[in-house]
Design a protein that fits this description.
This protein is of the alpha/beta class. It contains 15 helices and seven strands. Bound molecules: zinc ion.
Length: 375
Amino acid sequence: MSFEEIFCQDKAVSILQRAFASDKIAHAYIFSGSEGVGKFKTVCQWSKLLLCAEPIMQNGITDSCGQCPSCIKFQNGSHPDFNHIHKELLEFTEGGKSKAAPVDVPIAVIREFLIAKVSSRPVFSKRKIFVVSEAEKLNKHSQNALLKILEEAPQYCCIILLCTRLQSLLATTKSRCQIVPFLPISEDKITEQLKQAGAEKKSAKYFARLANGSLGVACKLVQLESEGADFYQTKKEIINSLCNLSLRDTLNLAEKILSQAKTISEIWAKLNKEMSKPDIKRTVGKIMIRIIMSALYDAMRLDFVQAESLVNFDQLEDIKKLAARFNCEQAAEKISQANQAIQQIESNVNERLIFERLLLNVAVSDSMACSNVQR
Ligand SMILES: [Zn+2]
């Protein structure tokens, strides 16, 4: 892996390259952008470069050498000056063993794996790196605990927060870090990558649109598909059911979605051992809601865009039926309810309740609208 292989994040790479070339490396960064756009890959390459003993210049880009003892330790995942902090470390904190998988990044993790380690000097390289994954899940206590370190980090430290929702961070946290933006990747480029990975043309285009600029998410969907997750077929069935959804059908549809989500989560868990099962379940739940949301969004803009640019371009008849059921305002309200449902999943509300309520809202407001029309 090298900087040159980082996909479509030229702006972020050039910010880091300029900082390195001018020896103006910040003590704290926020890599900000959606999930799956290359933040983690970039932070690994950046950390490896900062730790490397003999950086090299190739095609105008400075990169780690890949051969010095530091690079070799980094590649083996055993560099003593590289610290990856993630919420799952909770079980290794004092008294954390019996605790359930956390939803946010607990203060105990920040204290024991970051704050306590910052003051000791690097042992192998001239720098010490701390990467905090899912920084959007740092709760207020964790962020407050971090503030002093972000402000007065020792010279040898570089702390990098990976964040998908900048608005979740306190202004005081943001103001102490340099923000490096990671932009969504274009649909064409994602589709191309998915086709190269073996995805069929139609599903590649659909997954690229559903992933909304996230190559990582799109690749995961295609990978799950090849392992038998049947995502594409599932989405077709969900949208088909939505366009005729009656109050009576909502519980059945919720049940069906939950059961499909369970199957997909199980396949995902086999593929990805480092992600906790509750996290996988929440992620799949959110994708299921995005499928529903994409249909509502398509229905809302059906009259204003070409059919080819809909997310569900492959189910035009279903989208037309759905659009006939409610006006733009109603569709927008349902989309906002779906957004709330995504937030509820992140707050660990019971998923069955979330799906039942969401589908009920789609069906109820629709029948109320119809009865209003009849009157
Ligand atoms: Zn090296």
